[in-house]
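A further point concerns the way the authors explain their paired sequence and structure data. For illustration, here is how one protein appears when written out as sequence plus structure tokens:
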Amino acid sequence: MTDTVRKTRGTLADGREILYFDDSEPYVSGGATRRLDDPRPLPDRFAPVPGPDGEPQPFTGPQMRYDVLTGEWVPMATHRMNRTHLPPADANPLAPARPGAAYTDGDIPADDYDVVVFENRFPSLVQVPGEEDVVTHLDGEPLWPVRPAAGRCEVICFSPDPEASLATLDERRMRTVVEAWADRTVELGALPGVEQVFCFENRGREIGVTLHHPHGQIYAYPYLTPRTATMLRQAREHRAATGRNLLRDVLEAELRSGRRVVAESEHWVAYVPAAARWPVEVHLAPRRDVPDLPALTDEERTDLAGIYLRLLRAGDQFFVAEGDDGEPRAIPLPYIAAWHQAPVHEGREDLRLHLQLFSVLRAPGKLKYLAGSESGMGAWVSDTTPERVADRLREVME
């Protein structure tokens, strides 16, 4: 942590970890500490559970099955069917506790916070104490390998205000979010068996968000995700053919062209990729070759906070529709913001940090559905051109 951000670690009632990242006084200096005790009467999350016969059975975590047709692991997280879905405002589990009120079933015991991270109550990846990460076979068939989904899923809350968004933060608080992402990347990457750390944000009902409080997630995967594995293969082939880093060459090509570059700062470049597939898509890359968020310097992190906010605010101006009063109004952009980082153990020299920000909204009230070609064959068809997207982004950023 820097001198401007203080991390405080605690434990929730069921044993999950919670971490406060504070940039405001009296917390950043240590003059005060956020509430760390959790009075909820929750059982330990790894406690035995009743079996079909009512007798206690050892807790078992989610499993993964290997798809031999694609070479991909698929976690089976059936317990997530019961996760919180669009709760009323007075039952928001991501909001701070009400000062002086009886503690409710929220996951944050403090009555205020700057940025907070905690383990997901309904994780699709979890390391169960004492559970060995070994491969078995479904129905005894060698074609169907099965292993524990032994990773970790965390939630990061960007603001205590349920009506806020990441775009409404100031640069100081955005910098604290960057510090939290970097911190979690280091700690999660050090867990046994973790191969990749992914920081991301889903925003908007159209994306499938079930909690509208401003928050993101951080996954620690025990395998390389398909997207990363594909980029790593492409990068290695490019290096074998040219001796150069593929993502470095992509950035330099976009800068030479300039046609799709939408914003630049001292340390960062934002551009719409030449083969963008989403209705709105922009990538944000550092000028310097770095594998992940922890590798950024203080100057690069501060610069990132500013240009990232510019991109998010531009996204919220991208689409305009006529309001009930007949006046044009901007439509908050539903989006996914995905931080692509080099894996923990392999590909550190071949993959390069970058953000992919994209939206399924192709026009006001109209979504890009992943229909037959995209979903069935993985063969993408774009509804626009990257140049048109870049032109509109530059227009709203000005």
